[in-house]
Design brief:
- It is built from five helices and 14 strands.
- The protein is globular and about 65 Å long.
- It has a seven-stranded antiparallel beta sheet with strand order 3-2-6-9-10-5-4, with helices on one face.
- A hairpin with a 2-residue loop joins strand 4 and strand 5.
- It has a single domain, classed as Roll (Pnp Oxidase, Chain A).
- It is an alpha+beta fold.
- The protein binds flavin mononucleotide.
Length: about 210
């Protein structure tokens, strides 16, 4: 079966892409509104996109009524944000923060979360998150009339000490983070991946 995607098949394209491009990491983004309200919301159109400089990208669609989501509105005005990663024990709190609360209501309060101040950014991080990534907005790419990619340059990564095997060498106990990821459909998630290792092949020139 082949599905050709056009503007008219938007809903089908969303369904097919989000059901197949899985698992997707969840960026639990904290940002601050111009009025000083702390906002938190999950974004699974998220990933690391380069390392020199280190950058991450968030894909944010407008709301159905055409207004900016609070996260986009805040980042475009404050020009920074924090991406917190979500462990299994934080999944329910993360889910609470995708509530469509108005800008004057902080999802941080609704989900009963605590935050710690950012070091390089105005946005705070979620205290219980095992990993938090402080980002300064680098570029905004308009990918459609009602969606944009926000590219952030990473200024600092906070990793809870319990997950560091060798802090000096930056060795992280990645499985212990127990991060969750977005799967297909409206409410499916994955965690604790069934891992395997592959050695990276090195091309050997037959003439050598
Ligand atoms: C796990 C998860 C991932 C999500 N990923 C995205 C995404 O990548 N892009 C997006 O525009 N909305 C995404 N959403 C929806 C937003 O989180 C939702 O619209 C939220 O209310 C936005 O909050 P805000 O207005 O405080 O930014 C996702 C929701 C969930 C539960």
């Amino acid at each position: 079966m082949r599905y050709d995607l056009t503007p008219e098949t938007r809903a089908l394209g969303y369904k097919l892409l989000t059901a197949t491009v899985t698992p997707r990491p969840i960026g639990w983004v904290t940002s601050v509104s111009p009025e000083g309200i702390i906002n938190a919301a999950p974004y699974s159109f998220f990933n690391v996109m380069g390392d020199a400089p280190p950058v991450v990208a968030l894909g944010i669609m407008d709301r159905p009524d055409g207004s900016l989501k609070d996260t986009a509105r805040n980042i475009l005005s404050a020009r920074d944000f924090v991406v917190n990663l979500v462990s299994r024990e934080l999944a329910e709190a993360m889910n609470v923060t995708c509530i469509n609360a108005p800008p004057e209501v902080s999802e941080i309060d609704v989900a009963k979360l605590e935050t710690l101040p950012g070091v390089h950014v105005s946005a705070p991080r979620i205290a219980r998150a095992p990993v938090s990534i402080e980002c300064v907005l680098q570029q905004v790419v308009e990918t459609g009339p009602a969606q944009r990619l926000l590219i952030g340059e990473v200024k600092a990564i906070h990793i809870a000490d319990a997950y560091l095997l060798n802090p000096e060498r930056g060795h992280v106990d990645a499985p212990a983070l127990n991060l969750i990821a977005r799967m297909h459909g409206a409410g499916w998630y994955a965690h604790a991946p069934d891992m395997f290792e592959l050695e990276r092949p090195v091309y050997a020139n037959p003439k050598d």
